[in-house]
Amino acid sequence: MPEHAQKFSVIPAVNCVDFSCVRRQVDIATGFFEKGEDAWVHIDVADGAFTYNRLWNNPDELEKLADENPGMQFEVHLMVERPEDVVRSWIQGGANRIIVHLETLGDIHLPHSENNQRKKLAAILDQCRAANRELVLASNPETPPASLSPYFDELQWFLVLGVHPGMSGQRFQLASLEKIKFIRAHRPDAVIEVDGGMNDKTARLAKDAGANIIIAANYIFSSENEEKAFQALKEVGSLIGE
Q: Smallest Cα–Cα separation from 10: which of 231, 241, 238?
């Protein structure tokens, strides 16, 4: 069994416009995990500039969540135009893992943009390392897989977005599977998260392509039984070669 297949996991994603919704869904998610289990929640943050919509965006309130849920760890998905300006606030608020988008570091289509991207990423990475936080590099569906190549040496964690950044409930773009395969082929020990349009079928496709972690919001929190939906995704990890 490949190394990445042994580490398959599911993280519930909170995609909310206000704190009351965030708090309610985090409270539901705490029931998904056994006592002592490695429990994570993925929280979407959108500024309405990098994204078409605006989502909850308050690191001070994250600190309240962390205090209320001491057994829960939070990865914060920063879908914002200038992540370098807010990373420190989210770390101080209690984020255990930070996700930033390659596209927010500079226009990937402009000449010489890679140098600017690397400088911004280095500044963010320094802040994360100083706080002993993992940094995850995300990319949109239309971003070519090869655009990630310059970062394989310095980063191990990557998030493949299977939908356009912003609201949950979108359909997974199957072309994203090629990006997962590309990352796995060029960085075999990578931890690959897949976010957007995940259900029991698309999660299986993502896993077979090489993903370690499935991120799901709508499939879980729009179902009649959230825990049952979460467990259905976890069961994808036990499906090998079927």
A: 231
